[in-house]
Design a protein that fits this description.
Helix content is 50%, strand content 14%. It is built from 21 helices and 20 strands. An 8-stranded antiparallel sheet has the order 15-11-12-13-17-9-8-19, with no helix packed on it. The protein is globular and about 85 Å long.
Length: 614
């Protein structure tokens, strides 16, 4: 997969880099927030090659692209120019959302940048557990070093979360992290150890240990964001460089220590006690619910709501019972249901997708299986819920706990190795039960196999027909290497030719369908009846004209015939504005064909054959 190409295709569909106010990613999806949601073409994004699905939940626009999302994210950041957000833009539109959605959005954005550190620390802790089983002494310096390395992300959790919260609340990340450092300062820790009453200008300050905590720092950065806006608005510009950070830290940090921190710590305790109480009366309940309904939590974005509870429990108890056991059952069950589809389907493409995504699911990453197979076929979703629920019941009754923060799956089973030697055994049994139940349920219930429809349909003779592309524009056909843009000249987005137009009209180059008409009308994506995906890009950097000098005569989804008028543009006005009108014509699915015969360095009229596809 060409991720630079994917990033290049996504950016105009989200309204351009100027429309992106926040961009983060998790294990499988890009998470956008926009200044203007109306500029985003969700339907076109979902049809883009490389995109598994689009989810708009929890206050975020999420584009699911699979396990290689970090590569896509970095490619997008490169396209954007390394800076997300534009201070000249208005504040992002505030849609009316429920309080639950707002909370989930805060948790999601805050925890997303932190997840790699938590998983890294959790996996080191899991490796350490294995080494102890093989004889490493817990008194050795090697153990002590690995132990504090694995614990660092959790102990300094407030500092890491301060960064994510600063992104969410649009305030200074460094000042936010400085506030968090104050909550963990050795002098403050010494005051807690001494236990003597302290005050700040005669205001009593409650002694609270903020290491490992979650809620206090999120609330504190929320307050800091308002203090920063106040300081930005009322600080004289001539001394703002010195006075603004003074005001922010001098006001925000005492508020955090005196009011917000203790209140957040109290909420931490309430959440932890509530989870422990539920577990003491019905140990099977939480894992069963998580095992059965985890797919819906992922779909709605509310799976993130459980993360603070899990991290609080791990930091205070050394293990957690709310999230991990049920997620283990659910992830394995989704893998089992997907692999059952792979074994039973007669559709080659579905089998291939189900095998790869099913394997990924049992390893701990379920989104490719969930969006690519389970949701589309529906019955495997029910089967995975059955398997996850049954596995969750066993996990709860057996007392299964998770000792480290990792995405539960076969690859993360060492995270279930701990003080109780039977815990890993219960984890393995949970996996077997969940997989077997979901696999069997999928096999028995069946599903609507796409292969059945294809077998009943008449033979598709289009596949064997000759594939040709005719000139959409009158002008001079030239090599792509002559295009003054590396994305086109280096064939990043596909092979083809370019035409230097002599008139401002774009015609249909074959029979097919309009699959992507850019809002700015400077580019159009087509799909031929013979399977060719074609991009016609009128001009270089003309997206910045925002549609000026362009008119569209078709819309997304329109069926087209060779010679139909698609676009018109004012060639002279565009060139007078300082833009090239050379038009790349690219086959974007080049990997599906063995070769091309191109007409280059020749004058062509619209309707002349310019490309033969082999």
């Amino acid at each position: 997969m060409d991720y630079k190409k994917l990033a290049y295709e996504l950016l105009p569909l989200v309204g351009g880099k100027e429309n992106v106010s926040k961009l983060t990613h998790c294990a499988t999806r890009l998470r956008f927030e926009f200044y203007d949601r109306n500029k985003v073409d969700a339907a076109a994004i979902e049809k883009t090659n490389g995109v598994i699905s689009v989810v708009e939940k929890g206050g975020q626009f999420q584009v699911v692209v699979g396990n290689d999302v970090p590569i896509t994210y970095r490619a997008l950041i490169d396209e954007i120019g390394g800076v997300v957000g534009n201070s000249n833009q208005p504040e992002p539109e505030q849609q009316k959302t429920s309080i639950i959605n707002r909370i989930v959005s805060v948790i999601s954005t805050t925890f997303t940048p932190v997840i790699p550190a938590l998983i890294g620390g959790g996996m080191i802790k899991a490796v350490l557990s294995i080494l102890v089983l093989f004889g490493l002494s817990d008194q050795s310096s090697t153990y002590q070093l690995m132990n504090f390395i694995s614990d660092a992300a959790f102990y300094f959790m407030p500092v890491l979360l301060a960064y994510g919260a600063a992104i969410k609340f649009a305030c200074n990340p460094v000042l936010s992290m400085t506030l968090a450092c104050a909550l963990l300062h050795p002098t403050w820790s010494g005051m807690i150890s001494a236990g003597q009453p302290i005050n700040f200008f005669n205001i009593p300050v409650k002694l609270v240990d903020y290491s490992y905590s979650v809620i206090p720092i999120i609330l504190s950065i929320w307050i800091l964001s308002y203090v920063e806006r106040f300081a930005e608005k009322y600080t004289p510009s001539i001394i703002k460089f010195f006075l603004k950070p003074l005001i922010i830290l001098f006001i925000s940090t005492p508020i955090a220590l005196i009011i917000v921190g203790p209140f957040g710590a109290f909420l931490n305790t309430v959440i932890e006690n509530a989870a422990n109480t539920i577990n003491s009366y019905a140990s099977w309940l939480l894992p069963m619910l998580m095992g059965a309904f985890q797919p819906f939590l992922v779909l709605t974005g509310t799976a993130w709501a459980m993360t603070p509870i899990a991290t609080v429990q791990i930091s205070s108890l050394g293990y957690e019972i709310v999230n991990g056991p049920g997620m283990l059952a659910s992830n394995i069950a989704q893998g089992g249901a997907t692999l059952a589809v792979a074994m039973k389907s007669k559709n080659h493409q579905l089998r291939q997708m189900a095998f790869s995504s099913g394997f990924t699911a049992v390893m701990g990453i379920t989104e490719p299986a969930l969006y690519g197979v389970i949701l589309k076929l529906k019955k495997p979703l029910i089967a995975s819920m059955i398997g996850g629920g049954i596995g969750g019941i066993y996990a709860g009754l057996s007392g299964l706990v998770r000792y480290a923060f990792v995405s539960p799956g076969l690859a993360a089973l060492p995270a279930f190795i701990g003080e109780n030697p039977m815990n890993i055994v219960h984890a393995i049994i949970t996996c077997l039960i969940s997989f077997a139940a979901a696999f069997a349920a999928t096999w028995i219930m069946g599903f609507e196999d796409p292969a059945n429809e294809q077998q009943q349909a008449p033979k598709n003779e289009i596949k064997d027909s000759k594939k040709e592309i005719f000139a959409p524009i009158t002008g001079q056909a030239v090599c792509l290497s002559d295009v003054p843009d590396a994305v086109f000249s280096q064939k990043v987005m596909g092979d083809g030719i370019a035409i230097k137009p002599t008139e401002g009209k774009v015609y249909a180059p074959f029979d097919g369908e309009v699959v992507s008409l850019f809002e700015t009308k400077h580019a159009i994506g087509l799909m031929s009846d013979t399977g060719i995906e074609l991009l016609i890009h009128v001009g270089i950097d003309t997206v910045s004209l925002e549609g000026k000098f362009y008119d569209a005569h078709v819309k997304n989804g329109d069926k087209i015939k060779k010679g139909d008028l698609l676009l018109t543009f004012d060639k002279e006005q565009i060139e007078n504005a300082g833009f090239e009108t050379i038009t790349p014509i690219l086959i974007t699915n080049t990997d599906e064909f063995s070769g091309f015969d191109l007409v280059e360095n020749k004058a062509v009229n619209h309707g002349d054959k310019i490309i033969s596809v082999k």
